[in-house]
Amino acid sequence: MRTQYSSRQLMEVAMSSDTRWIAGFRSAVIDPHEKISLSEPRGFDDQTVRQTLRLHGGGERFRILLSNRYGRAPLEIGNAGVALRGAADAIVTETARPVSYRGAAHFSIPAGEELVSDPIDVPVTAGADLALSLYLPGATGLATFSHMLREISYVTRGNAVTASALPGATEVEQRFFVTGVDVLAPSGTVLGVAFGDSWFEGVGTTVGANRRSVDVLGERLTGGWVVNQGISGNRLLTDEIGEHALGRFERDVLAVPGVSRVLLAFGINDLILGALGGQPPATADGLIAGFTELAARAHANGLIVHAATLGPYAGCVFPDLPVRETQSTRTAVNEWMRGTDVFDAVFDVDRAVADPDRPTFIRPDFDSGDGMHLNDAGARAMAGAVDIDALFG
Questions:
Q1: Who contacts 289 (Cβ-Cβ below 8 Å, separation ≥6)?
Q2: How many CA atoms lie within 13 A of 295 on its CB side?
Q3: pTM of this prediction?
């Protein structure tokens, strides 16, 4: 896979050393052609997709990362625009700007590739909601997408990129063909990547409210921010929903511009989700080896590593999963995490959200209702477990 840059972007090398391109937003994507058990993939034809990108950090200008990573044919972008989001599907029309590539408003992304848009010379701030509108004039095939993102996208017929609102649009809780936003920010900005599963992506939190653990963590930070590369259902050791962590680490962490810290939250899916495909649960030794390798690769690339203990899930309501049988493995891995020096710091999510009377269960007031994901209050408690001084010190 190759990421394409315009000549204008390559000239950024010569820019002042006081600023640099840093990831201001990220959205981890999965292959729609693989077996997806949590969210149905889809394609488009003569349709506009408007989707919200909440910035974790701001800068003097920004650029959009568009992806046809898992496409099997070139992706035609007939028109594209970005604006500050208004209410729901509306945009703040006076902030609207075209999104181009090499000066062209109509462009194509080859199968398996990604591109970075021309810079958009408008300052943006942390917490801003950008509304990205993509007009897809021809049949796209199944779309490269983010599948459980706790945000609504809007789909309508024809080219509605510049429309102030999209009345009657179909609402979907997915994001398509976009993997991030880079911002031109001060060179001293500290950037972390939250690399994990649904406990980062935010399943269980309120849709559209930006109350994921990563969002709440951002409220506590100064001098930098953390972008979210969580994929619900993702595993540390085995491909299933998205490429496994060891496989996607290069792309989703090391290749993120400006990254110097990584936060890890994996393991629950390795213990229970594989049962849906007839796979045995991961062993404690296997998970420990996987975490050790991930930390070693991060350290070899100069990153500071923070890891989350595996949260409680004994109240899981989903059938046919080895919930009871894997509790001893979860305990063993967590005890290893608390005592190891493999990581620079451990944030003890398990103890932060567990029911004191039933420590293998999520606290009732932190439980989203399914016994294995956190609600808004639980996500806040998870974020509160991170030692900010250790993370950004």
A1: none
A2: 20
A3: 0.93
